[in-house]
Amino acid sequence: MSAMPNHTVAPTRPSLVLIATSLGVLLAQIDTSVVNLALKSIAIDLHAGVSAMQWVIDAYNLVYASLLLTGGTLGDLYGRRRIFVTGIALFAMGTLICALAPSATVLILGRIVSGLGAAFALPMSLVLLTIAYPGREERAHALGIWASCNGLAFIIGPTLGGWLVDSIGWRSIFYLALPICMVAVALTYHAVKESADPRERHLDIPGQLLAIAGLGGLAFAAIEGGHWHWTSPLILAIGATALIALTLLVWVEARTEGPLLPLEFLRDPVFAAALAIAGLMTFGMYALLFLMPLYFQTVRGATPFEAGLALLPMSLSFVIVSQLVGYLTNAFGPRVVMTTGMACMAAGALVLGEIGPATSMMVIGIALFVVGVGLGLNTAPVNGVAVAAVPAVRAGTASGLLNTARMIGATFGVAILGAIFAAYAGQEAASGAGFLPGLRAALTVGGIGEMLGAALAFACIRRHSLEARGA
């Protein structure tokens, strides 16, 4: 595959580009919401414990987080449309492996392939959208629609996915994504013009290997530490190796021309804050999505479909607020909107941490609604702020870094908060004395993380942080 010449061609039909890129987001998020909902059924069928179910989520998250930066670089080098379509094709392949998986090991393998596809497709979707909508106000509205696909996925996934799990079985949820993949590929070839900017860009293989070793080692230690004991020589050795790898990553990147991790970007306080906020947002959110379906099905005796319906207040508020967030950021600026969004997510998580077996579903629904409002207020602006903070020619790298931070937060949210939960509830996550204390501990820590994100947004994001920077 040879690098493409330097060119960036604006598409003639931005609305179709918006649809195509939004389908990419829809694919990844439907996958996340449906798999979380089906975890209890998968665990029973494949005889898997909590740590295996954490890996079903985190194998995807980890590969996604580790390779997002490479996905952004490949798009700059070889064509953003090409890499976007390749990502969707890999995602479809991984989904098919999951649908046919005879064991938890094969299922986790399929999730790895799906994560690779998402790492290619997701950063390119944001870059293609940024190219299609160069103006600040029109881009803000387009990003709101793009972000609302996350909420739409949380409606389609729990309702349709829950019904499929109940009526056909958990394998059917993976087939759900395949027709969307085909539509996304066809529409992308029709609507999206190819673009690339390979100037001074190259693959940073040492940086990529160190990033995988560091992130993978820390995730492994967090997930398996409680199972194998935190003080076991293997866990300590893996954790130490991961920290060494991440230290070497910073050292190598500081001495590499065109690095995978451009350290000069991290010196910009707005960009660095956007990365931290994105990571803290998903740290608490993905743990909530992992644990709340278990609560509904294990403690309240709900079916997967009923658990999906119980999550709808969050999904609906996310979709509604995402449609309005472009107007809100134009009116008040991203600082106010993002601070409010993270505070809402913190408040909702802390309330959910206090629920019991007989807590009113109205109280739970209101808390989930508030979490969805926070997601809607934060998802699009944090993406827009990160991309706007760097020169336009490095948009692919900025998008990759932002999404990497988001998925690192998700990976360690499921790993660390899942481990806290399992320390109380046990590997089988049965409805015993430890379930609710585990839920409370995990969601409380997640809520504190969201509140820290609100403080960062207030301190570091500025009213005009969505204004794009020149080349």
TrEMBL record:
One of its GO terms (cellular component) is plasma membrane. It is found in: Cell membrane. The keyword Zinc-finger does not apply. Keywords: Cell membrane, Membrane, Transmembrane, Transmembrane helix, Transport. GO terms for molecular function: transmembrane transporter activity. It is a multi-pass membrane protein. Residues 17-465 form the Major facilitator superfamily (MFS) profile domain. InterPro entries: EmrB-like, MFS, MFS_dom, MFS_trans_sf. The chain crosses the membrane at residues 52-71, 83-102, 108-131, 143-164, 170-189, 209-228, 234-252, 273-296, 308-329, 336-356, 362-393, 405-426, 438-461. The keyword Membrane applies. Pfam families: MFS_1. Belongs to the major facilitator superfamily. EmrB family. This is MFS transporter. It comes from Pseudolabrys taiwanensis.
